[in-house]
Amino acid sequence: MQLRFIGSGDAFGSGGRLNTCFQVTGEEVNFLIDCGASSLIGLKKEKISLNDIQAIFLTHFHADHFGGLPFFLLEAQFFSKRNQPLVIVGPPGLAQWHERFMETFFPGSSKTKPKFALSFIELKPREQADVAGVKVRAFQALHGDSGGPFFSYRLEAENRTLAYTGDTEWTDELFEAASQSDLFIAEAYFFEKKIKLHLDLATLTEKLPLIQSKRLILTHMSEDMLDRLNTLIFETAYDGKIVEF
């Protein structure tokens, strides 16, 4: 399995990084985790075949994780000429948020029927689904009330397990989400400063022994973290980084 960091940044362009978007590929599977506002730019920069992407798993409805969806879908309709099905998975309210974003960014676009099969799957916390060769389970993240539910994910495909915190302050849900995973991608927004709604590295480090993931990669870092990259003992993400797991 391979994971490529299309975008590894936060909402505010810290370090000049693109918004969150990861592509995961295997022998059969090909999917995105999150699709932040700059994702289409990153995907095209990496020369990714957009029509080969089978599913998009969205953690929440903030623009740096969800805002690239209108661009992705309209590009598929008018330029890539997509004819393969696409499944979009996310928290409750996904279909309504999709329509809201489409109408905000491109008024009238939500009324255009795509020329490919487009479906939405809304999960509830701790609900599991099989989507495009991936067994996905959603866990409740703690990222505030605004904008609806927030998820962390555990995804299993081709005998590999990938876990992703999404944006969240620490919650014990992450123990189950990431336990003994082959790859754990974790937000580390600050080094040790504790704020609501986001995860700091000090807290994550304290909890790691109970998670026992085979590999940890930090992402969604603020300038506070990026300024310390040369001193960190943990592996970190950057735009374009490719990971085999």
Structure description:
This protein has a single domain (2-234), classed as Ribonuclease Z/Hydroxyacylglutathione hydrolase-like (Metallo-beta-lactamase, Chain A, 4-Layer Sandwich). Helices cover 20% and strands 27% of the residues. The protein is built from seven helices and 14 strands. The strands form two sheets. Strands 6-5-4-3-2-1-14 form a seven-stranded mixed sheet.
Number of helices: 7
* Portion in helices: 10-25%
Approximate shape: globular
Q: Count the domains.
A: 1
* Euclidean distance between termini CA atoms: 6 Å
Question: How would you summarize what this structure contains?
Answer:
The chain is an alpha/beta fold and 245 residues long.
What would the keywords be for this entry?
seven-stranded mixed beta sheet; 245 residues; 14 strands; alpha/beta; globular; Metallo-beta-lactamase, Chain A
Blueprint (SSEs and pairs):
Elements: E1 2-7, E2 21-25, E3 30-33, H1 39-45, E4 55-57, H2 63-66, H3 69-78, E5 86-90, H4 94-105, E6 118-122, E7 128-131, E8 134-140, E9 151-157, E10 160-164, H5 173-178, E11 183-187, H6 201-207, E12 216-219, H7 223-226, E13 235-236, E14 242-244
Parallel strand pairs: 3-4, 4-5, 5-6, 10-11, 11-12, 12-13
Antiparallel strand pairs: 1-2, 1-14, 2-3, 7-8, 8-9, 9-10
